[in-house]
Write a structure and sequence with these properties.
- The protein contains eight helices and ten strands.
- The termini are far apart.
- By secondary structure, the protein is of the alpha/beta class.
- The longest helix is centred in the middle third of the chain and has 16 residues.
- It is globular, with a radius of gyration of 18 Å.
- The strands form two sheets. Strands 6-7-8-3-9-10 form a six-stranded mixed sheet, sandwiched between helices.
- Strand 4 and strand 5 form a beta hairpin.
- It has a single domain, classed as 3-Layer(aba) Sandwich (Rossmann fold).
- About 35% of the residues lie in helices and about 25% in strands.
- The structure holds adenosine-5'-diphosphate and magnesium ion.
Amino acid sequence: MSELDIRDLHVNIEEKEIVKGVDLVVRQGEVHAIMGPNGTGKSTLAYTLMGHPDYSVTHGQAFFKGQNVLDLEPDQRAHLGLFLAFQYPVAIPGVTVANFLRTAINSRRKIENPEDKGIPIPAFRKLLKEKMDLLKMDHSFASRYLNEGFSGGEKKRAEILQMATLEPEIAILDETDSGLDIDALRIVSDGVNALRGPNLGVLIITHYNRILNYIKPDVVHVMLDGRIVESGGPDLAEHLEAHGYDWLREKTSSVTV
Ligand SMILES: Nc1ncnc2c1ncn2[C@@H]1O[C@H](COP(=O)(O)OP(=O)(O)O)[C@@H](O)[C@H]1O
Ligand SMILES: [Mg+2]
């Protein structure tokens, strides 16, 4: 079983510490949610795991398959079996969803075996069809140009289809504040629910409690001011829904005083 093991991670943006010591283990087969109010460093954590260049790790590691992935390039992280959904996926004019996915699969295969000639087209078509059926997607979606003129929901569909075809061991999804309407939320939730199972670990980062009405995480974490201050089961999300975050702020400030 693979696991992503984040140890005492500290991250700066432009000299300012935003993530202030995060420890977290996500195993294959588990769905974790990180919740928390705006501005507490959730996206910073996600971007750091993705390898975004603006985020500098000042301390800590994130181990996956015996390597500190923070030392790896983003594509190497992906080839190792981490899936990092991009918050704002770029449009690639002239490249269809299918071509993009085949290229992504082939580059992962090539890392595993430099002699690999790529997935045969019939096998790829079969895989793509299976995954689109699993996700209840219209097959015509595969011939669209990636992200060109895509609605928010269609971008999410492309992202989830990418996750389905790449079959990562651990997926990190940052479902942020902006532009995630209820349709997009459902697409992500239904996708994660369709794909969840013993081989997939998910870390879903959100400030919407709402998404947790659709995805039942195994573990819920709360992030406040750059730290995970509370972890629990799905009942923690319900408690937050009813009581907000203030009780945790009080609890954590009384601990540090
Ligand atoms: N590119 C950036 N430059 C400077 N400050 C940033 C940048 N991105 C985020 N921040 C700051 O880092 C803090 C945490 O932001 P973020 O990780 O996006 O929080 P969350 O996802 O929990 O809402 C905020 O105070 C935000 O203003
Ligand atoms: Mg965010």
